[in-house]
Amino acid sequence: MGMRKPVLAIIGRPNVGKSTLYNRIIRKRDAIVDDQPGVTRDRKYTDADWSGVNFTLVDTGGYLPDTANLIHQAVLNQVHQAISEADVIAFLADVTTGITSIDEEMARIIKHSNKQIILTVNKVDNEIRELDLGEFYKLGLGEPIPISAISGRNVGDFLDKVIELFPDSKTKFEEPEEPDIKIAVVGKPNVGKSSFVNAILGQDKLIVTDIPGTTRDAIDTLFKYYGHRFLLIDTAGLRKRSRGKEAVEYFSTVRSFSSIQRCDVAVIIVDAQQRITDQDKKVIEEAVRFKKGIILAVNKWDLIQKDTRTAIEYEREIKDAIPYLKYLPIIFISALTQQRVFKVIEIARSIFRERERKIKTSELNDFFEPIIKSNPPAAVAGKEIKIKYCTQIKTKPPVFAFFCNHPNLIKANYRSFLEHKLREQFGFFGVPLTIVFRRK
Questions:
Q1: How many CB atoms lie within 10 A of CB 303?
Q2: Domain holding 385: CATH number?
Q3: Can you tell me the distance from the alpha carbon of 338 to that of 196, in angstroms, rounded to the nearest whole number?
Q4: In which domain, by residue range, is 434 found?
Q5: Domain count, the chain
Q6: Whether the Cβ atoms of residue 360 and residue 425 lie closer than 8 Å to each other
Q7: Do residues 98 and 238 share a domain?
Q8: Is residue 171 a part of any domain in this protein?
Q9: 257-278: per-residue pLDDT in tens?
């Protein structure tokens, strides 16, 4: 076993360029960047490397000391947690604004952290700007390193300094374990996605407030459960694209659908108090389109007045709203009380196994031959359609091919009939199936 990777945390007040520096270090656009203060709220983790040294990079929410504001207070808590996790802290300031009272307050906090600190002054685009560095010595954090995150100026020198300060920076670290199952947590704003993730992880890794849209980036977290490695992806609250007028909200929406693309199983959270909405259906349809495993988790179930039939009636209402998706598992949870939250993980593991199942060709044909013989597809324009045989041509997601003489003439209702029979016999609970017709 190798040592853990060292951790670099980027700390600073809003709009000093933390996410821009984060993206520059990892050499891709991962964190959302916008000139609106406070865009990053949760701390965001990724693997990075420089000069052969692997490390974990943490981008934090902008420090906002207004503790009367719920989001500001939660961001402050996130910053404190990032400081406690870090081996090296990059305290980022802005040369164009100079030292502010918030910078001074942050400097006082991190000086008491007993961590290695690099005072980094951003937006120093040229040598003339370097003449303004003198005042930053007042922070008492040592010699400031001038950089321009947006152009990359001096970022290499900054990273050289970082790896010098890492403990055992020359140690070869093991590559991180790949997750067995990737789970995306998606849904409308304010349905409890971050609360669900926090309940699973047992810590407030993600900010949780009652304000819709608190999480904007997709946050990845590795965890183990009964010997299995899971990657949990918490996404920004999905909004209708037509309403995503702000650039930030647009990119958050894009990031959310990207998270669905990356996962094996999508846990779609809906609010028990609101019933299922058209927007919920759009999210489900997106997961179906990408052929992901799907779980419908009805959150805030603890707030519902119920009797012995409430869950049955609610489930029937959902299935009536989306009758073509009756194979989806529906589970009633409370992220607040942790009721059945780990049951969701167990179901996700079962669905993952279903997605990778392979049915033998002989078994498929033994099953379908009498069914197709007694219920053949309807003739079209006098042309009789004969299905010769079927086989599974893919897993993750499962794809089944039926070979016939006129594949283009088979109607959608017969495709649905075959899928229904396939599920009746072989299961595939929670897994969208693909049925294709090919010429023999």
A1: 11
A2: 3.30.300.20
A3: 8
A4: 361-439
A5: 3
A6: no
A7: no
A8: no
A9: 777 888 999 999 999 998 788 8
- What does each C-alpha distance from 140 to 62, 107, 134, 283, 397 come to in angstroms? 21, 8, 12, 50, 57
Q: Are 119 and 20 in contact (CB under 8 A)?
A: no
Is residue 206 located within the same domain as residue 351?
yes
| Token couple for 229 | 């490695």
Place of tokens 């400097």: 107
Rounded CA-CA distance 229/217 in Å is 22
Q: Give the residues of the chain that fall short of pLDDT 50.
A: 1-2, 30-42, 71, 75, 169-171, 173, 207-216, 237-252
**Do residues 336 and 367 both lie within one domain?**
no
* Structure tokens, 325: 């998706």
68-76: long-range contacts (C-beta < 8 A, 24 or more apart)?
Answer: 70/209, 70/210, 70/211, 71/38, 71/41, 71/207, 71/209, 71/211, 71/214, 74/41, 74/207, 74/208, 74/209, 74/214, 75/38, 75/41, 75/207
Q: Which amino acid is at 109?
A: I
